[in-house]
Write a structure and sequence with these properties.
Blueprint lengths: L10 H6 L2 H17 L1 E16 L5 E16 L5 E2 L8 E10 L5 E10 L7
Antiparallel strand pairs: 1-2, 2-3, 2-4, 4-5
Length: 120
Amino acid sequence: MAIAEQDALHKAYRYYSEGEAAAGSEQFIQEFVEYKDRVTGAKRYYGSKATVNDDGTAGFVYCEDQNKAYNKSLKTGKTNVTAESKDNYVLYDSRLRVNDQGVWITEKLASQRGSTKCRP
């Protein structure tokens, strides 16, 4: 939503993330804002696994297939259709905690592009 609305400080992602995760998201979104791009097509998420730790935090790992997702210029309206690639499979590893309102907040989020764990 933040990318579509071209707002690197959008309240939607900031509600669910803090610290390193929020800073990383802001930087990622800002690149789309600077280039006046958005995402079109489809992304597929799969292979999720959640674990709750003794300290009340949680780990959440999942895969993303970006092969059918493309950048679209808001200036020209043109979509940059790219070829499928092994680099379009991304592994995400995150750490979450519950905030004072009872909402799971992502504190850290790391990604690995081209992950063999996510490729078919």
